[in-house]
Amino acid sequence: MGTKDVRLTVALNQFLWSRGVKNVPNRVRVRLQRQRAEEGEEGQLYTLVDVVNVQSFKGLTTKAVDAE
To answer: pLDDT at position 3, please?
Structure first.
């Protein structure tokens, strides 16, 4: 995404730790969003990573979605 600052959402963090430290999920579907930093923060942009809940991982492909 071209940013050095990557931030995870609370929902993604909880999903990754949901089964404990020894039994981490094998696959995770994520959504990446490039956002502008607020005033007073260093850097212009950061990447926000969020979890996407899916029923099955079969047949999934990458989709580019424009923010509206």
So the answer is: 86
**CA 9 from chain center: how many Å?**
7
Give 34-41 contacts, CB < 8 A, sequence gap 24+. Answer: 34/1, 34/2, 34/3, 37/5
In the chain, domain spans = 6-51
Listed residue (7, 1, 26, 6) closest to 16, CA to CA: 26
- Residues ≥6 apart with Cβ < 8 Å to 62: none
Q: How far apart are CA 47 and CA 32, in angstroms?
A: 6
Rounded to 5 degrees, φ, ψ at 15 are -65, -45
Is pLDDT above 90 for 2?
no
Task: Please name the residues in contact with 25: beta carbons below 8 A apart, sequence gap of 6 or more.
Answer: 15, 16, 18, 19
